[in-house]
Amino acid sequence: MGFGGKLPRGYLRSLERDFPQRDEFNTYTASAATQFSTKVELNTYTASAATSFTPRTDFNTYTASSPAAGTGGGIFSQSAGGEQLATSSVVFSGSNPNSLILNVEGISELSGGLIHKRFVRTSNYTLTTTDYLVAADTSAGSFTILLPDASTATEGQTWVFKDEGGVAPANNVIIRPTVGGQTIDGKAEIRLESSYAAIHMYTDGVSKYFIF
Asked: Which long-range contacts (CB under 8 A, 24 or more apart) does 166-172 make?
């Protein structure tokens, strides 16, 4: 990469300061070009500065004054090709991290594994909006899982309920809303009655729950 046969403006200006007479300056700058018989030689000479930086990324970083640690900002440590990259785990923290929501607008693509929060219950339990996978074991007897007020949850929020104990036929897992009048598929309650049964459920964020 050269300068197309022309010396950089900054370099020309530095030479102007060295020559009080314009004629002397013009004579000097013109003589520099005559030292190279071909355009290739001139380009090779003017590009020689790049050879002192290896690998090439070092030179680009130097000339562009780019920060070596990346330009993503915030939780992102790198920005490249229109993508923001997080090169380590992202953790939500604060006085109440469970209330924080990661809102993704557009399509989400997971290229690795997915881990869900699993909570084992062996007795009556009131579900919260920070729960997801409830693993029920009724080996010690049937118990009830109460759903939170639907209006306190986000529309479309989902939960999973699983009979991990495998004894649901004898000891049912009972699931019902905490607030009277709220329903699950139009019913006041549902029960897991088959061994190792499982259901997915979501809410409208108002007053109803639905199985899907």
From this structure: 166/195, 166/196, 167/138, 167/139, 167/195, 168/136, 168/138, 168/192, 168/193, 168/194, 168/195, 168/196, 168/197, 169/193, 169/194, 169/195, 170/138, 171/138, 171/139, 171/140, 171/141, 171/142, 172/138, 172/142
